[in-house]
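Long-time lurker, first post. I've been practising inverse folding by hand and with some scripts of my own, and I keep getting stuck on stretches where the structure tokens seem ambiguous. Below is the full token string for one chain I'm working on. Before anyone asks, I'm not after the true native sequence, just a reasonable design that respects the backbone. If someone could post their per-position residues I'd love to compare against what I wrote down in my notebook.
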């Protein structure tokens, strides 16, 4: 970046909201539904109607604990739900049930790639993980039920989520999005959330301040709210870094403010200035008793956590001599890592399988518009397909041609190859016959070869391949061809 910003260091802390993968809402029996008609998944509790009382969803708590443990936090034996009071149309109760003084968990960390080329590692402190309910959604500039104007959709009101607050340990837009990626990977691995950003299941507030290089005190920060893509997070940080640097360079002071990022203008806009805990008049929710978690329960949940991405990456590298980036892609989702490891069980040569997964399988899955958890191809069948290539029973190209159908329909690769008439022709008698035919058809090529033109061999190979629709075994074919040309 330019000279102005080189003088300043960015200090970034993220507040990340992650929806928990539950059937129903945090305090009401209304279902959690995405893409439903507006206001079709609401219960009087979500509306804050008088005479109804919240009941904590027993499904949500263990999920929140899983996330906290996966982030190396200390989970507390007692936490308290508190009311965060503010007025906004998407919050009918006038307060959001959250946690404040006694959160679920504190004091964790997460390691992310850091530095210029991402070659270093930065350990980012996790200040706290607390539970809260989501608010509804305001809809502007969009017709709802044929009507113009602003609307409120409360389907999201009361959806359980965790807020994960980081220490101000991040130093660049790239580090911030790497942190967010790592977080998304972990909550998915741990089965806590689908963390689909397009559905708003993972959203992030960016806190940013600048300080002169060498300075250890923190500068005044701004907070950019509700970013729901990695790109927006990076863009918002870059834009806000530029804005703050300009203010500081002009001898001014950054004013603490809440910002909104406008992706179309690629810049931030001030929504409101200064806002702190006092403004929210937090107090313990008198309708809810403190949440108690026994040591045993927390330990039971810890024991049920799967191997997490970082550990799995290290193990795969070690066990199969894979590179950092190969292991990185193979463990980028639990489904992919499971698929790869199951294929290795069936086949053995992990390096070859890794190449096939990274080069061909992922591309084919994408080209077919599929997701890995929706393919019909079993890992064992994938290993078998790679085996067919290794035994020269089909060519690599043929194997790639079989992939789309195998992905969509499943089945046995050897059978499919046979059904499509794809198996390599190695039958010597058949090859001899085709070679004889080709030589007879190209006398000038044969005499050129006698005159010393070696390139002719490739031309004749090509002719035989054409005759056999690419199915001749190249090794066997070359042998026959060379021998016959010498005769
Ligand atoms: P709140 O936003 O609710 O007032 P905090 O004041 O605890 O909560 O801070 C929220 C986030 O802001 C945290 O992620 C924290 O790391 C980050 N943060 C706090 N101070 C700064 C700062 N001076 N510069 C950048 N980030 C900061
Ligand atoms: Mg905040």
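-- Answer (accepted) --
I ran through it position by position. Result:
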């Amino acid at each position: 970046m330019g000279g102005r910003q080189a003088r300043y260091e960015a200090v970034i802390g993220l507040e990340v909201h992650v929806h928990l993968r539950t059937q129903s809402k945090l305090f009401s029996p209304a279902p959690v539904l995405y893409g439903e008609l507006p206001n079709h998944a609401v219960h009087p509790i979500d509306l804050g109607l008088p005479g109804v009382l919240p009941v904590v969803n027993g499904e949500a708590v263990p999920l929140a604990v899983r996330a906290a443990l996966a982030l190396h936090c200390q989970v507390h034996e007692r936490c308290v739900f508190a009311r965060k009071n503010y007025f906004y149309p998407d919050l009918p109760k006038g307060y959001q049930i959250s946690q404040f003084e006694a959160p679920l968990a504190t004091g964790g960390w997460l390691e992310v790639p850091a530095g210029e080329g991402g070659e270093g590692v930065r350990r980012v402190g996790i200040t706290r993980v607390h539970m809260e309910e989501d608010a509804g959604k305001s809809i502007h500039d969009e017709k709802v039920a044929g009507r113009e104007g602003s609307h409120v959709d409360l389907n999201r009101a009361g959806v359980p989520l965790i807020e994960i607050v980081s220490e101000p340990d991040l130093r660049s837009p790239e580090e911030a999005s790497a942190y967010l990626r790592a977080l998304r990977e972990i909550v998915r691995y741990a089965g806590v959330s689908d963390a689909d950003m397009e559905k708003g299941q993972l959203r992030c507030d960016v806190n940013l301040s600048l300080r002169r290089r060498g300075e250890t005190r923190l500068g005044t920060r701004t907070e950019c709210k509700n970013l729901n893509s990695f790109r927006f997070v990076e863009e918002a940080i870059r834009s806000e870094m530029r804005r703050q640097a300009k203010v500081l360079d002009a001898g001014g002071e950054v004013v603490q403010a809440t910002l909104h990022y406008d992706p179309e203008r690629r810049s931030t806009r001030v929504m409101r200035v200064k806002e702190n805990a006092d403004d929210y008049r937090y107090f313990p929710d008198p309708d809810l008793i403190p949440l108690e978690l026994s040591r045993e329960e927390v330990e039971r949940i810890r024991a049920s956590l799967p191997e997490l991405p970082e550990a799995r990456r290290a193990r795969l590298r070690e066990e199969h001599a894979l590179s950092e980036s190969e292991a990185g892609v193979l463990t980028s989702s639990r489904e992919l890592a499971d698929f790869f490891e199951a294929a290795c069980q069936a086949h053995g040569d992990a390096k070859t399988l890794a190449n096939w997964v990274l080069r061909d399988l992922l591309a084919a899955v994408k080209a077919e518009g599929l997701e890995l958890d929706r393919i019909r191809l079993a890992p064992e069948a994938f290993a078998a397909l790679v085996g067919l290539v290794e035994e020269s029973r089909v060519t690599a190209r043929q194997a790639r041609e079989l992939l789309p159908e195998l992905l969509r329909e499943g089945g046995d690769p050897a059978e499919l190859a046979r059904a499509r008439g794809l198996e390599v022709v190695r039958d010597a008698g058949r090859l001899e016959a085709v070679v004889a035919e080709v030589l007879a058809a190209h006398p000038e090529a044969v005499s050129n070869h006698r005159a010393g033109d070696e390139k002719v061999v490739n031309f004749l190979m090509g002719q035989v391949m054409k005759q056999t629709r690419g199915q001749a075994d190249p090794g066997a074919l070359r042998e026959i061809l060379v021998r016959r040309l010498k005769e």
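A couple of notes from the structure itself: The mean pLDDT is 92. Residues 11-15, 165-168, 207-209, 218-219, 221, 223, 276 surround adenosine-5'-diphosphate (ligand 1) (CB under 6 Å). Happy to go over any region you disagree with.
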